[in-house]
Amino acid sequence: MDNFKKPSLTVDIFIYNENNDFLLIKRKNNPYKDFWAFPGGFVDYGESVEDAAVREAKEETSIDVELSKLVGVYSNPNRDPRGHTVSIVFLAKGNFVDRKAADDAKDIKIFTFEEAFTTDLAFDHKDILKDIYKSLNLS
Predict the structure, then answer these.
(1) Residue 1 scores a pLDDT above 90
(2) For a designed S-S bond to 111, which of 49, 81, 116, 117 qualifies (C-beta 3.0 to 4.6 A apart)?
(3) Does the predicted model carry a pTM greater than 0.85?
(4) How far apart are CA 98 and CA 102, in angstroms?
């Protein structure tokens, strides 16, 4: 029964402030090394996706976040070159003053939507960003 392939489960976190500025991390590792991306990563066995999102945000940005909304689930089997991953994406609030790149992040930067839309982003994060833009009623 365990011979069936299963997708990996990941989370991505859109950490934003009252001005709708948000954080992206520069990836330290492949795939998409040196590309900007949402903080995120793999859900550990026995961990809820909400706990994974809070943990990954802290590990990569040094920020304690409060999840505010589920954006959606992104499951295109080709979204990650390492294999089929399903990502659950959350909006979160956090104190940008505490930001410091750590773990899988080599840098961290505050972006506006205008800047991010003209930046090469990792994975399908540009598509996710468009969905977030619409969900925040900015379009």
Answers:
(1) no
(2) 116
(3) yes
(4) 12
